[in-house]
Amino acid sequence: MNVKFNNRDPVYIQVIQHFKEQIATGVFEPGQEIPSRRELANRLKINPNTAQRAYKEMEEQGLIYTERNLPSRITKDEAVIKVVREELIVEAVNSFIASVQSINIPLDEVLDLVKKKYETFQDEQGENS
């Protein structure tokens, strides 16, 4: 597990963001067991209380669940997973729009370019597989 922390956002929020990205991309599968809080803290070299706070927040958001004394697991709730994916997509689109609007590119030109680049990127990814 490799997380690059920045200095502007709280670490527990960055841990949650990492989990959301891993869930949305399918790296973490529904029902998959995740490291214990202590193990996560050791792996990421963060305070165990920070790991605990991240897990507590993720449980409240429905991203993970813990049954009795068993290890925590990624949610199996497809609706939650869909919301996480949409949230990440909206964040990326908002960031992109803010960048593009700052240089005054017409929408139709942006959409054409995005479509071409998206298709090119997919083709390149297919060749690299």
Structure description:
The chain has two domains: 11-76, Winged helix-like DNA-binding domain superfamily/Winged helix DNA-binding domain (Arc Repressor Mutant, subunit A, Orthogonal Bundle), CATH 1.10.10.10; 79-128. The model has no long low-confidence stretch (mean pLDDT 93). Strand 1 (64-65) and strand 2 (73-74) form a beta hairpin. Helix 1 crosses helix 4. It has helices spanning 11-24, 37-44, 48-61, 78-101, 107-128; strands spanning 64-65, 73-74. The protein is elongated, with a radius of gyration of 18 Å. A two-stranded antiparallel sheet has the order 1-2. The protein is built from five helices and two strands; from the N terminus they run H-H-H-E-E-H-H. With 129 residues, it is mainly α. Helix content is 64%, strand content 3%.
Helices and strands, with pairings:
Blueprint: H1 11-24, H2 37-44, H3 48-61, E1 64-65, E2 73-74, H4 78-101, H5 107-128
Antiparallel strand pairs: 1-2
Helix pairs in contact: 1-3, 1-4, 2-3
